[in-house]
Amino acid sequence: MAEHEINLKITEDSRLRLEENIAKLRASLRHWQQWEIEYEGMREELAALGEDNRHESMLAVGRDNNDSQVALGDSQGDLLNAEERGQLLYDNKGNNRSAPDVIGLLLRRIDYVQQNVKSATSLLNAAEDKLTSSTMVVQPDIRSEESLPITEILEELDEEGN
User: Fold this and answer.
1) 3-state DSSP call for residue 74?
2) 97 CB burial (10 A radius; 0-12, 13-18, 19+)
3) Which of 2, 11, 101, 105 could covalently link to 97 via disulfide, CB atoms 3.0 to 4.6 Å apart?
4) Alpha-carbon span 96 to 92, nearest angstrom
5) What gap in Å lies between CA 36 and CA 21, rounded to an integer?
6) pLDDT tens-place string over residues 9-29
7) Is the separation of the CB atoms in 117 and 34 below 8 Å?
């Protein structure tokens, strides 16, 4: 096998690993984004209760559209299930938490999830850039519709847009 063929094989294997990694990172990003959506949704529902922050009203956040009681939020989302809601609505001793306490817990969890979304986004962008770079090495003669070479230009802007 010629040295060129060996290098192409190594590059192709690397590209396949990068594509696998990108797929995993996208799944991870979707997972953390879903957590953020569900936590934020529950926080908004609890905040909408206003003065009516009785525990019965907080439990009503877990009712489905037909107004029939579900097990603490089974209808709300895939990740924020009954067990998760139970951990938020009750302390370790099984005592009811107040709405402000639950909202505080949700805000801390939302902050944690947002950090993970930011991290996953950063990793995904880096992996996609690396894949683009490796594709350009393997196929340097990529051309546009006008038969002109394509070059990706990245500009970094500061906070003021300069």
Assistant:
1) coil
2) middle
3) 101
4) 10
5) 23
6) 667 788 889 999 999 999 999
7) no
